Amino acid sequence: MVTLRTDARRNADRIRVAAVQVFRERGLSAPLEEVAAAAQVSKATIFNRFGGRVGLIDAVLDDVVAAELRRVIDDARSVVEIRSRIRSYVGALRDIQYRVPAVNDVLLQEFPDSEQLMALCHAGGAFHDHLVAEGHAAGVLVSEFTPTDFQALTIDNALALKYGVRPSRSDYDRRTTFVLGGICRSVQPSA
User: Fold this and answer.
1) Domain hosting residue 91, numbered range
2) Is residue 190 included in any domain, yes or no?
3) How far is it, in rounded angstroms, from Cα 11 to Cα 42?
4) Share of the chain above pLDDT 90, in %
5) CB 140 within 8 Å of CB 82
6) Is residue 13 predicted with pLDDT exceeding 90?
7) Where does the pLDDT of residue 4 fall: very low under 50, low under 70, confident under 90, or very high at 90 and above?
8) How many domains would you assign to the chain?
9) Per the count of CB atoms within 10 A, which of 19, 23, 99, 133 is most buried?
10) Is residue 10 situated within a structural domain?
């Protein structure tokens, strides 16, 4: 294990703190110059300490977005009734997509060389598959709705938020209600 000098360790810590702030506010593709300026180091220092953007993303992904995304999944898992679980999860996922631009970079798999980012994507995809299967088994989701549709909804939303005109929060929340109204049956079929 290589021990860093005190100043090098301090620089690495400042870079991590700055990266968390910049990536949460601007997304994982924010210019590294912004991270360097916020950390009061040169861009070269980021490359020396982390090997570049992907190394920096891997170093801070948990603090930027992974912990919060895992919490959204865990919170949804704790909801007993499947209709409520789906509504809770979709609402929470869309909320975090709106609040934290880095989530959209994760969902769009913008940095496929990041093993941590891709592992997070795969965990989310597996949860989507499970949620859709449970929703169908309980008759809560319309029969035509597939795991691929679920993935497309999250990616379409990510693309719209990343590259489109950002709607007001009230319009965004209203559209979340439309999404849920379209995929969930209004009345459960009789058994």
Assistant:
1) 6-183
2) no
3) 10
4) 83
5) yes
6) yes
7) low
8) 1
9) 19
10) yes
Q: What is the CATH number of the domain that holds 158?
A: 1.10.357.10
Report the 3 state secondary structure along 109-137: CCCCCCHHHHHHHHHHHHHHHHHHHHHHH
- Summarised one tens digit per residue, pLDDT across range 96-155 is 999 999 999 999 999 999 999 999 999 999 999 999 999 999 999 999 999 999 899 999
Within a domain: 87: yes
- Tell me if 28 sits within 8 A of 116, measured CB to CB: no
The number of CA neighbours under 13 Å toward the Cβ of 179 is: 21
Mean pLDDT of 170-189: 83
List phi, psi (to 5°) of 184: -100, 140
Residue 191 lies in a domain: no
Sign of CA dihedral 60, 55, 106, 86: negative
Tokens of residue 160, six digits:
């719209």
Token couple for 167:
């709607």
The Cα 132–Cα 127 span in angstroms is: 9
So what's the pLDDT on residue 168? 93
Quick one: tokens of 182?
A: 């379209």
